[in-house]
Design brief:
The protein is of the alpha+beta class. It has three domains: 93 residues, Uridine Diphospho-n-acetylenolpyruvylglucosamine Reductase, domain 2; 113 residues, Uridine Diphospho-n-acetylenolpyruvylglucosamine Reductase, domain 3; 184 residues, FAD-linked oxidases, C-terminal domain (Vanillyl-alcohol Oxidase, Chain A, domain 3), CATH 3.40.462.10. It is built from 15 helices and 21 strands. The structure holds flavin-adenine dinucleotide.
Length: 456
């Protein structure tokens, strides 16, 4: 290694260190293999050592030592990200936050926990009090709250509450600076959001305070249709029906639900996957009858709890994961449709790329509260040239691409327009540029890091 890793470990012998190369390599990886581009560019990149602190004191000790020894730090929740966000480009320490995971409290509409808490564990603690998280990525069983904040967008629940970045969702973060004597600072409101979706490059998040949603018993269903358009319109109308309490509505064109081999669904149908409060079932059945759809799968909250099978693990980017189990020569894109014409855009692009793009969209509210949908389209090739052409055609037709084929902050969701506050926050929290170096391209460190060509 180019860094004094042995000194670091010798200074703090009581910490939970992970040194076996194969374990450190595993802790350097996420689900970037979804992308042919990232699979190629991140091959061989890994940390030199990992540590799993259990307390704020342990985090402070290791972070202070890294600052003194100029060792890069890449934060990790549980590595379910999709863009190599937790893969170090320059080696160094993997700071695994998953053991720093206490649920702290919930009051009406608000809750707080340590960053390494798994989302499912948060909900298990909050639900008896009548509350639950406002957004669940389909990886909720293992993904952490800090990882969702650092690298995620939203998920089931964004239909009602929008993405994490919508005002009122993230109320505060408690964060640590990377300095020889680390400081701990509470950031509230818009200031807290400056650390959101920047891949752990501008601060170490210790705790999050988040808005909560009322908990319901959720009915899970798959409605299927012969007709693409009837299914798409049903999904759109179900998700925005003001009298219904829905948590999740997604549209999947045929043959996507054929990949869901364990659900026993009829083959070759266009589908709407939904979670709605159980008391909405009668109204949904009426809507479905009017539109010629069939309820092809149904599970009550009690059945979901007993079976541990939930449709939450069939939506968002789990849809793509099920496709991969059947067909390897695939990848995907992430798109944001225009609220003023999303249905037309979905129809037009589905027709234009028939046979090449399998249409999957998630209905949601945008940061500004507009109703729309965002796509996680399955692309039936891993050819990088064709992939780039398809993404360009989407952009040309007015659909925003949140490029999942890059590991750089500026090229993903931020669409090249980096908020200057992100860099100011980096200067404040990480003046030496040790956090996940290389991911924030606009940051020019005063002292270049040790080069590690051995990993190239
Ligand atoms: P990691 O992957 O471990 O980390 C993510 C980023 O956050 C990294 O850059 C890391 O450095 C940083 N980070 C971690 N902890 C901290 C901390 N304490 N302080 C500062 N930075 C930190 N995402 C969605 O938003 N919605 C979805 O519906 C969704 N579905 C998915 C489905 C599948 C099948 C897969 C593979 C991924 C999906 N994702 C989704 C992406 C990902 O699972 C989520 O964003 C998840 O919440 C990330 O949590 P994690 O603990 O795995 O984070």
């Amino acid at each position: 290694s180019a860094y004094p890793i042995d000194t670091l470990r010798a200074e703090l012998p009581a910490l939970d260190w992970i040194t076996e190369p194969h374990r450190v390599e595993n802790l350097s990886r996420d689900f970037a293999w979804y992308s042919p581009v990232l699979e190629r560019t991140l091959a061989g990149k890994h940390g030199d050592i990992a540590v799993r602190p259990r307390s704020e004191d342990e985090i402070r000790a290791v972070v202070g030592a890294c600052a003194r020894l100029a060792i890069p730090i890449t934060l990790r929740g549980t590595g379910t990200g999709n863009y190599g966000q937790c893969t170090p480009l320059h080696g160094g320490l993997i700071l695994d936050m998953s053991a720093y995971n206490a649920f702290l409290w919930a009051r009406p509409g608000v809750g707080r926990a340590q960053a390494g808490i798994r989302l499912a564990a948060f909900d298990d603690a909050a639900r008896p009090l009548g509350w639950e998280l406002r957004w669940l990525p389909s990886t909720f069983r293992s993904a952490t709250l800090g990882g969702l904040f650092g690298g995620g967008f939203g998920g089931a629940g964004s239909l009602r509450y929008g993405p994490l970045a919508a005002p009122g969702n993230i109320l505060a973060v408690r964060a640590m600076t990377v300095e020889p004597e680390p400081q701990i600072i509470e950031l509230r409101g818009p200031e807290a959001l400056v650390m959101h979706h920047v891949y752990g490059t501008n601060g170490i998040v210790l705790e999050l305070e988040v808005g909560l949603a009322p908990a319901h018993d959720w009915l899970e269903g798959v409605a299927t249709f012969d007709d693409f358009d009837a299914a798409l319109r049903f999904g759109a109308d179900l998700g925005r029906a003001p009298g219904l309490v829905t948590k999740e509505v997604s549209f999947m064109a045929a043959p996507i639900t054929d990949y869901f081999t364990k659900l026993g669904l009829p083959q070759g149908r266009h589908a709407v996957v939904f979670l709605a409060a159980e008391f909405c079932e009668e109204t949904i059945a009426q809507m479905l009858a009017e539109r010629g759809g069939t309820l092809s799968y149904r599970a009550t909250a009690a059945e979901v709890a007993a079976s541990r099978r939930t449709l939450l693990e069939y939506v968002w980017n789990h849809t793509t994961l099920h496709a991969f189990k059947v067909e390897k020569n695939l990848t995907y894109i992430q798109s944001a449709y225009n609220p003023s014409c999303y249905l037309e855009q979905v129809r037009t692009l589905a027709q234009r790329f028939a046979g090449e793009v399998q249409m999957h969209v998630e209905f949601l509210r945008t940061k500004e509260g507009e109703y729309s949908c965002s796509g996680l389209e399955i692309i039936c090739t891993r050819d990088e040239t064709r992939l780039a052409e398809i993404m360009q055609a989407y952009r040309d037709s007015g659909v925003v691409i949140n490029n999942p084929h890059t590991c750089y902050v500026e090229e993903g969701k931020q669409n090249l327009k980096l908020n200057p506050q992100v860099l100011a926050m980096k200067q404040r929290f990480d003046p030496q540029g040790l956090l996940n170096p290389g991911k924030l391209k606009s940051w020019a460190p005063a002292q270049p890091l040790a080069q590690e060509p051995a990993h190239a």
